[in-house]
Amino acid sequence: MRKLIIALSFALFSLLASAQNGGYEFSAEATGAIGISKNSKYNVGASIINGYRFNDRFAIGLGIGFRYAETLYYYSEDSKLGNYESRDNKFLLPIFLRAKFDFIEGKIAPFIIGDIGYTIDVGQNQYKNLEALFVEPIIGVDFKTGKSTWFLGLGVNVQQHHYQYFHISSVTMSSERRVNGVAPTLALHFGVQF
Known about the structure:
mainly beta, Porin, eight-stranded mixed beta sheet, elongated
């Protein structure tokens, strides 16, 4: 399934790149994020987005990226030893659809972006706890300089997440279960668009 998603994404990128007319645009961005819950501490990454601008205010695109993240995958409570948590360094491939709306035209222009996508976990850990859907609203500002546009944005990435929870007790029966939730991060985006 992963190979099919990646192959379809690259096919779409190639199709968009071959249709370089007035509406085609390409963006590259770097991101850095800090976790705003115990489920995620931080992540850093980069993405490319191939898109189509319909007019001066609205564009859509398809993006693929790479993220390196540290996230919770195991948490245990032991009645004698106390609590313990394990974190793992994740190698992630987010594939996403992006819609962008520019509020005004000009050399400095505010915008809002909505990303929705799916994250593929390509790391070695058996718990693929971030392999799931995500959404990210972003607000920011474009700085137009000739043929390119630099941009800076701040987003809240809400990534579906799960971890393994263990309760270990010498008095009652021990148990294990999967805890589903989200791993939200506050993300800074910096990039260029052509």
